Amino acid sequence: MLLAGCGAPSAPAAAGQVTELRVALAPLASTLPAHVAAAEGIFERNGLRVTITEGNDLPGFTAALDQGRYDIVLSVPTIVLVAADHGIDVQVVSRLSRSTSAHPGTVWITRDPGIASVGQLRGARIGVPALTGQLTDSLVYLLQRAGVPRDQVTFVQTPFATMPDQLEAGRLDAAVAGAPFSTAMAARGFRLHEDVVVAAVLDATGGAVNDGMTSLFASSARFTREHPDAVRAWRASLEEAVAQLSRDENAIRDQYRAWLKMPPEVAAGSPLPTWELDIAPRDLEPYVTISKSVGSIGREPDVTTLVWQDHP
């Protein structure tokens, strides 16, 4: 955890003032810009004093956001939509990373190399990091589109790190994971298939959108309304960190080893993230289609209110 003070945020930075910002995120390749911005003083140069809490419970981050414990949290579209469906005040302040077919993020993986399509997973035991959420919803959507109802597969909540051994032992037939875990599974002979989020979005949009939003940062509409300068400074800091990292691939892999504790050989072979910070309300629409189709949300949200739109 990077500590720089707690408590409620101050007024937006002006005339040398500093804004306190409490942030929760998971230590992932996609969140490297936030880590670098904190470690190298980028936030401070933009008038922010940021406290970063690291963890892996993204739904818990959103609940804590609603309770006022954080100002900005790491999230994904599905969590934002489910939170809004339950009446939680949540608003996306920036996209963070994207995946494509050419540069996949989280893929589905099979023990049997003869399996070539999602429709062949009927009756399978599938390891997933959580029984709900974007990855599971995306795979459920793809299964349904292939004619396989959810109750004809068994989802098993499995930590990414144990998925290779569970596949090897035959306790799982398939799994959903991203790098570096998918890279390790490929090295052990398991078959990697397409990115589940990209494939679901492609289907949900009739082929119009061919990338997946794999992570984002969210706040509350109340916070963005009361502290717009802090949101601008946050985004400017991320943009500076992304530009810095994008100029030096070795710096990214150094962070893989130092911050994410990857072994050198894994860090050297892991794919690099594709960062993208800009987001428009329409970018959430494919995830609304997916979430409604699998029953994660019950009503159509107003996506224009779910995305912060800067009005200086």
UniProtKB/TrEMBL annotation:
Its main location: periplasm. Transmembrane segments: none annotated. Residues 33-243 form the SsuA/THI5-like domain. Signal peptide: none annotated. InterPro entries: SsuA/THI5 (IPR015168). Coiled coil: none annotated. Keywords: Signal. One of its GO terms (cellular component) is periplasmic space. It is found in: Periplasm. The keyword Metal-binding does not apply. SUPFAM superfamilies: Periplasmic binding protein-like II (SSF53850). It holds the Pfam family NMT1. It comes from the Bacteria. Belongs to the bacterial solute-binding protein SsuA/TauA family. This is SsuA/THI5-like domain-containing protein.
